Amino acid sequence: MPAMIALFATVLLSILQLSSSFAPLEGVTARSVKTSEDVNLSEFVSTPSSKGEKTMLVLATYAADFNAIEYAQRLRYYTPELQKRGISKIGLVLNCEPDSAKSLLDLVDLPCDAVQGDGVTLMVDNLGGAGRAFGVGKGWKPDDVEMSPYVKLFGMLFGLGAWATLPAVIGGYIGNPFTPQPWIEDALAVGQRKGRWPDTALVLDEDSGNVLTNKFTELPVVGNWPRRPLELATLRLQNMLDISIKNWKELAPNDESLGAGVLTQLGGCVVCDESGNAIYEWKDPGICAVANFEDILDKIPRID
Description:
This protein is an alpha+beta fold.
């Protein structure tokens, strides 16, 4: 009888543990940049820290990619607001090697556990298996092994296998009179402080580096829009020239990653409660079409 009770208890415990995990990532791991150990992503996203009740996991792309850069820039700005909503643990998975991941976060000034000791939990998945398990888009012609991945990527720029690319890019030029995106100004300021071009969009205080004037607010008629025309396009030009292209050697996917298809793989993110239930879930539908963090803030109320 005691043996039967012990067996029943073991089975029950296993069922409870399974029910409190995020099923799409069950058994999926990424490597911690800080410890070099594998992290079970289902357990990670289902186990909040002692400071809160929710966890966010961003399954980004390779380190030189527009989507990965923008996810990191948004995390830098929005982390305090996410924490006010009980999202006390945030993980960022990049499809690259550890040194590339740390280089990207240094370029965008995003604190992480591997460098500063706190901040986002930085992990890597060089072959992109975690993102595919989550169900992110694999881009154009993912099963065509004969076609160059760079040709596939070129096709995606025009919406092939990534329908939202053109709307997202065009939106960066025309702006948005309804939805604010304050992270853009923050990312532009980081870029200017680091000497990235274009470097005339903002006037920064010489001592503190704080923004004194955003010149996009001086545009006639549209200057008072929550997201001004050309503002996001200017940031993306900064990102392309002085993050992606300038640092391509340090951030680009290696041959093994290219063979796994990470050059065209898109990203996504999920926010879970302590039971592993998804409160918010997003899969990028195109290049530059990453999660709108303002939607996350609207979805999840603040904890007062």
